[in-house]
Amino acid sequence: MKNWKKYIVTNPKILSGKPVIKGTRVSVEFILERLTSGWSEADILENYPNLTKESIQAIYGFAFEKKTKNTELANFLNRIFDEDKELLKRLSE
């Protein structure tokens, strides 16, 4: 998703500036952790009804773009992608 900036924001006053889904306190990191723990997108949307399918897709776009730009985030994402090859495949589509 090329327009992830419409859904993902950072604000130093929210979760110490971690990227979050706009209008929430739900971090990108938290959703990626749920996905790697075996949660499906449907599970996330059911448990967090304020999120949308588009906001989840924005996380994929954000993660893919940031993967090589931020060393700390890249290391975290590399661990996730090493554990979940299907997620990496979805991101690269």
Structural class: mainly alpha
Low-confidence stretches: none
Based on DSSP secondary structure assignment, what is the total number of beta strands? 2
Percent helix among the residues?
40-55%
Q: State which percent range the strand residues make up.
A: under 5%
- Mean of the pLDDT scores? 85
As laid out across the biggest beta sheet, the strand order is: 1-2
Main β-sheet description: 2 strands, antiparallel
Number of helices: 5
Describe this structure in words.
It is built from five helices and two strands, in the order ββααααα. It is mainly alpha-helical and about 90 residues long. The longest helix is centred in the middle third of the chain and has 14 residues.
Supply database-style keywords.
93 residues; mainly alpha; two-stranded antiparallel sheet
Can you lay out the helices and strands and say which pair or pack?
Elements (H helix, E strand, L loop, with lengths): L7 E2 L10 E2 L6 H9 L4 H7 L5 H14 L4 H13 L1 H8 L1
Antiparallel strand pairs: 1-2
Brief characterization of the structure:
This protein has 93 residues and is mainly α.
